[in-house]
Design goal:
single chain; 3-stranded antiparallel sheet; globular; Double-stranded beta-helix
Length: about 230
């Protein structure tokens, strides 16, 4: 028999409520009880994850959709004898107890206009256009790219109950570190707002493409000033 001890936190990565037809845009998190140490929160960039892919892979994933679902919530409700809230949850589309939706694998952030890998984490059931095995391997690979590349992550060590974290769920994933067993409770409150139905704009750019254009424009402008002088 193996000891029932958690050794990997890779399955914790996710963006909030992506199983809703209209999921969250921004999230706020405040911890009101902190363990003696541990229990940090990590975030990773969906922009950078997209930019880590080769151009052929980017073009391939641009065309795909995924099913986002969270049946565990329904199972927990049945097991613990409570009902899920079935009335509109912040948007008319977010209604009923079937917690599933179809969204693109690559999402365009409406604020920046940049592409981000959206299909990451335990709210993603499958990539619709792939076989079961292809989908599983692809989704696992996305998470592997996150956990093996610390330079696309940031980490916050909670210092006191006045710390407040705010992030954009449309292009950022997060997880907690599960390293505080026996070191006290870790509790808090999270609030999310709702954005728009996720979409992919084929005219949108990756972050690197957009920044390269900006830098190129600046260099061209400086060059024109030097020539004029």
């Amino acid at each position: 028999m193996f000891k029932d001890k958690k050794q990997s936190a890779r399955s914790g990565w996710h963006s909030d409520i992506t199983f809703e037809p209209v999921p969250s845009d921004y999230a706020l998190l405040r911890l009101t009880e902190l363990p003696e140490t541990g229990g940090d929160t990590l975030w990773a960039s969906g922009y950078e994850l997209y930019d880590r892919l080769s151009k052929p892979y980017q073009d391939f994933f641009d065309k795909l959709t995924a099913t986002y679902a969270q049946p565990n919530f329904n199972e927990a409700a049945l097991k613990n004898n409570f009902e899920l809230y079935s009335q509109p949850r912040g948007a008319p589309e977010n209604i009923g107890t079937d917690l599933s939706a179809i969204h693109p694998v690559v999402r365009t952030n409406p604020v920046t206009g940049w592409k981000s890998i959206f299909a990451v984490g335990h709210h993603v059931a499958k990539i619709n256009e792939l076989t079961e095995e292809e989908s599983k391997r692809t989704l696992d690979w996305f998470v592997t790219l996150i956990v093996e590349n610390h330079d696309l992550q940031i980490r916050h060590r909670w210092q006191n109950v006045n710390d407040l974290a705010i992030w954009d769920n449309r292009s950022v994933y997060h997880t907690a570190t599960y390293d505080y067993e026996g070191l006290g409770p870790r509790t808090g409150q999270r609030a999310v707002s709702l954005g728009e139905k996720p979409y992919f704009d084929p005219k949108s750019q990756s972050r690197r493409e957009a920044l390269a254009q900006v830098i190129g424009g600046i260099e061209s402008f400086i060059g024109s000033l030097v020539s004029a002088a």
